[in-house]
Design brief:
The protein is an alpha+beta fold. The strands form 3 sheets. It has an 8-stranded mixed β-sheet, with helices on both faces. The protein has a 5-stranded mixed β-sheet with strand order 12-11-13-15-14, with helices on both faces. A hairpin with a 3-residue loop joins β3 and β4. The protein is globular and about 50 Å long.
């Protein structure tokens, strides 16, 4: 099997199983009596998170038994191939447990440490964006045919919609002033965050999405989507990486304007 066909096979599976995992989460969404636990880092987790990730792992393991898998809830399973799947069954569990429909399922696919395919699926809204390297980014609204996902063309931060997941994440790394400056300059600031914010950037409805703290499973799926939609995803210093624990995702046109602010606040080491 050629490298390109191997990518396509994984990309197709990622799209299918994201929808399947999303349906599992919806069985628990807005249901009375949902039990919420706190992990060691005090972040919430539910039976839906675990059930969805178990399903994803089962499906991947059947189709590609030699691939490695890294997931938020069950850690890493080593593989024998050059491929690794990176899973976040519910990105935005805080939204999920509050009955807010802006949570998503994230599936990223790496080859040789390069993020080459990704899916963002928002189950409660029936919206999906997926991409693979060189194949474009595609937006699917439930019941509709896929259309090309493209970032906006706005080139002045003063005209842009700036999003983040959690404002206090900026203060937590000593960068409260960065948030204040971006909010001051941007036309609209909202916390339509987690992966939904990146979906909005990829489809041109927002222009800037910034997170101060991210795990690998939060970001791996995003890079190919933002890039294939015509935007840029880097860390706060401008390096195109998913391994810095932070992200700046933009339409590309205002990326340097945003970096002019974030570069002044390097991540504490």
């Amino acid at each position: 099997m050629s490298s390109n066909s191997e990518l396509h096979a994984r990309w197709r599976l990622a799209q299918d199983i994201a929808l399947e995992a999303g349906r599992i989460t919806l069985e628990h969404f807005q249901q009375e009596g949902l039990q919420v636990e706190r992990k060691d880092d005090r972040s919430p987790v539910t039976v839906a998170d675990r059930a969805a990730e178990q399903h994803l792992r089962h499906r991947i393991g059947r189709a590609f038994p030699d691939d490695a898998i890294l997931g938020e809830e069950f850690g890493e399973t080593s593989g024998q191939s050059s491929w690794r799947w990176i899973l976040d069954p519910i990105d935005g569990t805080k939204s999920f447990i509050c009955g807010v429909p802006l949570y998503g399922t994230l599936i990223g696919v790496e080859r040789d440490k390069q993020s080459v395919a990704g899916v963002i699926h928002i189950p409660a809204l029936g919206e999906t964006v997926h991409a693979a390297g060189g194949e474009g980014a595609w937006y699917v609204k439930q019941g509709c045919a896929p259309i090309a996902a493209r970032v906006s063309s706005r080139d002045r931060l003063e005209e842009c919609v700036f999003l983040t997941s959690q404002v206090d994440g900026f203060a937590g790394r000593g960068a409260a002033a960065a948030f204040e400056e971006l909010q001051r300059v941007a036309y609209i600031t909202r916390t339509w965050g987690d992966c939904y914010g990146d979906l909005l950037v990829a489809t041109g409805r927002a222009d800037v999405m910034i997170d101060a703290e991210m795990s690998l499973w939060d970001i791996a799926a995003l890079a190919p989507i933002i890039q294939e939609a015509g935007g840029r995803l880097t860390d706060w210093s401008g390096e195109a990486t998913i391994y810095s624990g932070e992200a700046v995702a933009t339409n590309g046109a205002v990326h340097e304007q945003v970096l002019a602010v974030t570069r002044s606040f390097p991540r504490p080491r």
